[in-house]
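DATA SHEET
Item: assembly model
Revision: 1
Owner: S.N.
Input lines:
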Amino acid sequence: MLGMFCVRVCSGLVGFRMATCVRTLHSLSGITVAQIDEEVAKLLELKARLGGDDGKHQFVLKTAKGTRDYNPKQMAIREKVFNTIISCFKRHGAETIDTPVFELKETLTGKYGEDSKLIYDLKDQGGELLSLRYDLTVPFARYLAMNKITNIKRYHIAKVYRRDNPAMTRGRYREFYQCDFDIAGQYDAMIPDAECLKIVHEILSELDLGDFRIKVNDRRILDGMFAVCGVPDDKFRTICSTVDKLDKMPWEDVKKEMVNEKGLSEEAADQIGEYVSMQGGMDLAERLLQDHKMSQSKQACAGLSDIKLLFSFLQLFQVTDKVVFDLSLARGLDYYTGIIYEAVLTQAGVAAVSNEAQNGANAEESVSVGSVAGGGRYDGLVGMFDPKGRKVPCVGVSIGIERIFSIMEQKAEASAEKVRTTEVQVMVASAQKNLLEERLRLVTELWNAGIKAEVMYKKNPKLLSQLQHCEESGIPLVAILGEQELKDGVVKLRVVATREEIDIARTDLTSEIRRRTSEA
Amino acid sequence: MLGMFCVRVCSGLVGFRMATCVRTLHSLSGITVAQIDEEVAKLLELKARLGGDDGKHQFVLKTAKGTRDYNPKQMAIREKVFNTIISCFKRHGAETIDTPVFELKETLTGKYGEDSKLIYDLKDQGGELLSLRYDLTVPFARYLAMNKITNIKRYHIAKVYRRDNPAMTRGRYREFYQCDFDIAGQYDAMIPDAECLKIVHEILSELDLGDFRIKVNDRRILDGMFAVCGVPDDKFRTICSTVDKLDKMPWEDVKKEMVNEKGLSEEAADQIGEYVSMQGGMDLAERLLQDHKMSQSKQACAGLSDIKLLFSFLQLFQVTDKVVFDLSLARGLDYYTGIIYEAVLTQAGVAAVSNEAQNGANAEESVSVGSVAGGGRYDGLVGMFDPKGRKVPCVGVSIGIERIFSIMEQKAEASAEKVRTTEVQVMVASAQKNLLEERLRLVTELWNAGIKAEVMYKKNPKLLSQLQHCEESGIPLVAILGEQELKDGVVKLRVVATREEIDIARTDLTSEIRRRTSEA
């Protein structure tokens, strides 16, 4: 294909060239340099047009829609974010697993409701029908059922795939990372759930993304609330998905959708409106347990009691400052059965990232950049995979890492500090010619001692270009070799930042480099 | 789908059950426990048969063919291997990039010759035609051309996809990791090439997989050799791929293929046979430069001079002990233009991993487990993507990580040492009831101080089960709380291995844990 394209484009080009060249050649004897330049410019213009229009239809040098490469700078930021997240997961005793990027198509079928249309299928090339994973939760549940695991605390960081409408400047891609932490097992109520919130609190604090809030609710409270407000059973789910829009739409519009589109009575909608405006902490849960309507629902009461218990654990975990019991929180996914939560950044400084989506929201909410973490309890999902329907209760959280990357990248660009993309401690350099062998000998000594070192792949590089490379890539030290240093058995160690230079005995070099670059 | 399966299988089961139950119920009054057991056994047998035959066609709980999950133990090994490899890449000053798991189909077209049939295509769901990446080299070349990068030293560790015949026990999968290190840029000859070999040497030594050898050859020497032996130009590639089989077949069979299948003259084959049996070092390159036939090929001479230069650098890098100039090495991929290399493990102890493939080979080769690393120089690939055909010389190496995982997993299983899957330093436990709150308070203190700590998610767990958990998962310390300890402001710190217990003032606890678990 590429080969064919080359031939086609080139022959086109040759055609153009020929015409121009023939003209040029005819007047070769009398041609001036200026005329040559003019002809060259014409040819180049033609060439650019070829590549710019016709060429484009033949071969496009790009990544697939909704995907991106990570360059070294972005990778350095990504690595930093991952390290923070993984350290936290490990601090809480999690193991890690990995699953394939594609699953049997039927493993994903019936798990995502309407969103199933966003699943990437593989072409039927004979053999099994496969699909790219849509999230990490369903493969996790499949893994537990397949291996009959009833207890595990695991994290999984990997890419997932959704044929959604990408909005890449706001960190919404078709290929994106999820960082999931889940606790599976039959335990006493709300202890693992509270730990998930503690983890979100730790990660968002450590990443230093500005102030945040973690909204908490419970699927049972929502269902109970719908029941006591007079929502027919078969409308729970659709009304729930309308409530879910409250972070993007004002109540009036949400109510309109409920009444006009979903056919709910105005009275029921108004009752829901009253509840979903409520925010608080343990006190709100206590008040609602006394609420004459809410208390009629067994489900709601079970949820409210668990919220109370949850807050008592959150107090012990010292994270109640950021956690809000918010009756308007209604996460979309079908598989949640109990507590649900979502973390949002509230700092105005990063609002630009996604404030498009916020128009119409009230003043306080308009500064949020949307959800950066979310999760909840899903006690039924593993049972869907088990041949005997055996349930494994699970609770988990997923960190929305792409939005965090977007914010971190913007911060890095705004900051004066340079992002280093390598960890090189020292550059082995020389000011004189014919010292390639000596440089290679020295860099070998350093590598063998575990020092991160570089040497230029040139026989006789200029000292200036070697020093420039250090400046550009943030290498702090240069080990300079010359005839004199070799004779004296020393190396001249130069500190790039200060330009200070000192002679170090060759035998002491590695320990001196280690001392000067240790981050203690 | 899953729902439907359940209904169908269950109704089948109900049918069987009904018949059995009806019989059972008729004699309910006089039934014995033994009879019940018998009936239950019959039912279970029926159920198993259902699940084993009919059930299978409806819903299979498995991963896609040729893929696997990594469980926490495998992940711990994988992490260790990756850390060794990444440390080495970083020690040599590499940056890292990432590219999407799928590319435009046309990006991969025309790069892999016959192997193109092994590429996974995505289903055409509207929009672009996409394929899963087949290796990391072609996406790297696309990345360089697209971003007009002419100089980079990068590593990339990611999964690639090949619809090949899997042989999973020997570490051959359809989804597998590649660990690639490449140096792109116009540099002085053989310096980056030598560094790639130094890297292979460092990684294989550090992974401690037993003895190994790195075979080196040059595409130009092969082509020159074919020319001087009288192979027609249009047969270079096919004869080359026959030579590539020498590590799996004896010379007699390779010759037969050349003569009988590829139509080469017996005389030419015999001449090739003489050359490809040659192995050596710099001396062999020197000898061949004097060889009356070989020296007639300019190409071969260029390759041989570079091999000489390469060995001089390898001497400085102190890695010649493992490197062999081997004229039988002929790597398959089309895009190589200069030096090529391949590392093989030679230790008998790990031969079991792939000795199937070795029958017919000679005694020395029969102990090799096949290639664990390979690479070479490809100066033309980036130019295939550049609209103006601008070349960016590249040399790189790919570590065959799945085979290494297989070996490491076997070693781990054979060894008595337990693989830890978490890094938890301390378990917060209690021997008494009603101390959940106190345990949560203490574990919060530890987490907030950066200690990796766990607590059981039970109100009143038994001390024994808490200690057992430590034994099983290798947690070295237990911080035990009781009424007395709380009163005294201390924590009882128990060393799991020795069962030694000492009281530590609560204020000193984190530093004491850190002291006892630091790996200095």
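QC remark: Chain A touches chain B through 98 residues (CB under 8 Å).
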